[in-house]
From TrEMBL:
The keyword Transmembrane helix applies. The chain crosses the membrane at residues 483-500, 512-528, 534-552, 564-582, 588-611, 623-645, 651-669, 689-706, 718-739, 746-768. Keywords: Membrane, Transmembrane, Transmembrane helix. The keyword Plastid does not apply. This is FAD-dependent urate hydroxylase HpyO/Asp monooxygenase CreE-like FAD/NAD(P)-binding domain-containing protein. It comes from the Bacteria. Residues 6-152 form the FAD-dependent urate hydroxylase HpyO/Asp monooxygenase CreE-like FAD/NAD(P)-binding domain.
Amino acid sequence: MFDIVIIEPGATGVSLLSQIQDEVYSLRFKKPEIAVFNPLCTFASGNAFGDAHNIDKVNTPSSMVSVSAMEPGRFEHWLRATCGCQERWPSRLLYSEFIHQTYKDINENEILQITEFPGSVISVIRKNEFFIITDDNGNTVSAHKVVMCIGSPPADSFPEFNGTPGFINHYSQYLPSVNDEIIIAGNSLTAIDAFRYIHHKGGSSAHLCSRNGFIPTYLTREENYTPVCLSWKNILSAIQYPEDTFDVFIRLLHKELCLLRNNGEFKIAISLLKKGNHTEYFYFLLERAKKGNLPCQDTLVSTRPYMHKIWSVMTIKQKQNFLTKYGVLWATWRPSVPYEVFYELSQASVNEKLKFHQIQTPPVYQDQKFSIRTSSGTLKSNYFWDATGGNYNIKKMRNTLLENLLINKLIENHPHPCGGINIDPLILQCKVNGNNIHGLYNIGPLSKGCLFSTNALWFNVQCCEHLGQTVGIRIRKKCQGDHMIILLPFVYLCIGWILGKTSWDLKSSVSLLLTKIIIPVVITFNISTQFSDMGGIISATALIMLIMIAIGKYTNQDPVMTLCFVYLNIGWLGLPVASALFGNDAAIIFIAAYVGSSIIGNSAGAGMLSGNKSSLIKILKTPPVMALIIGILLIPLRQQIVLWFDYFYDLAKFLLNFLGMGILGLWLAKIKFSARDFRLEILFFIKRAFVISLIITLLLFIAHLWHQPLLTDNPATLYLFCFLPPAANIIVLETHYLGTGRSARTISCGTCISIIVISVYSIFILGLRNF
């Protein structure tokens, strides 16, 4: 069970990881277990940056695109250190490298326990208080929280043209040999990127067509104008009721623009556009920008810190009115383009390589040409590039996960009237029919209808900071509870010891329940759902035990003591303590080791004590091996098993912890031993711990070479094996084959020593976490 699953972490997801890392570090939490799902081709960068071309620019100043609130200037520092320069508007691919490096740094810091799944999530199912997540590679995990950072999935703005010769919706489809004029639908940054790609490839002229006919504006280098009327202070003073928000904001905006009607750039720029004087439009804005004289743009930019708050208190109707009347103006004048790009557009306009048009009718394909009627005449071309940037209507988006979320009612079936999905703007949780889906979050463009500024990275970083604090609160509560959970196995031991002092003989029935039912259930569940992580550990455990047995035959002629040296109590003592102390990954390691040791311990042990080789049939009939076989057969049904039997698995884990420690208490209550016994067994314990520690160290070295994160990320879990006592099953084998009970003293004393040492080890681990 993971604490958090992050789906497709581009810049926003990496920012969230950075914020969670900061929270965990500052409060000294236990490492949260985080699963990251992302296609390998855009891992930790996202389509917006990882899929970009080298000419594409980030349209936000480098000072505003750090992914960490703790280091707002980190990207600028990275630029200077990496490139020896400080570009104001770097390329998207360069920024992608920065995101990759930031993610790599987070991984190497090892403050978070991150597991990577290089695939696309296709299914999220809610099950009680957690979620089951499945990707297109067949991986299935469960998690308490799911955070979607999937950006804006592609949508079909012109589905009727799919498959039509000459229809383009990605730069990779453009052929540099094209000499025909190209129609580009859109006037956003996506459309500008499309034109620049054509222009840099030496293509012919392009026509940018949009419903409003607007042209992008230049991003001013500095904001010199401070609004007089439109300010947060004036808005707060004027608003008395939430219903007044829209009217007050628009009234103050109009009042501000009226003050600028003679000195502002709006009036003249729009007049030039209407007259079709595009070249003059570019020159006018370039000259004003050089002097830092773009007060209208400065006014819109000044709303950046508080616009999402205004948006959140608007009613749906007010939001729709705003988008209808001012959406185009806002989209064109506030998120402007860098000077370098704007100048390139102006030169293309002068050379008649770029023309802008206002669409009057939808495009059609007839006579093997694309045709579209605009305010300046009808355009015809063999090529039509859809650069509208997609559609925020979730029902029109091409995304398997969104379709699955709709089916499972984890997002609303009807799209948000203003685009995207419905979320709670305060805590970023998805909402369905007015109710929050607890544990399911979304950050990024899909929250457009609820948060307004979701295309801006700086805003998404703010959202990540807020969500990181929310996650930190949950992890803190979990860690506080972990202190008690770690003590529970020893409480269960005491309960067993007390019951052992009574006249009730529970050992046989409890032992039978554990070995025949509970442990096989735990093995079957984990093998069927996590076999890819466990197969290697099972094999490694079996191999290590065989090597130790072979060495033991030459160093110790007593087969009973050899078994006590190599066959450890992984199931009844190790597994309960490891799962309580270290969590899910530790449980997977110990279950796999238990399966491997049970196979070798029962088969080789029987052969050593009886003097005969164990038959394959007997080995296959042992409960651990049968559970292993059943688990492997159930692997194709892993998603259904997690969904249907997770409750029973939780119950089995509890019974394993309770009964496993309880039966040790029952045994300890019945056996008496002296101080001399302890002295002898302490030496035996130290020898075994030393040998196992050497093996674990060698295993970790090999795991690093072979890139096995389950092992390399959990060294403390592996070294817990050093402190385990001999397996209680040895006394059963000895009694059956030899009719003696010499191992009882070694097992009992070793168990007492192990309990003391493991208690100290647990306190040490807790101390490290809280240091």
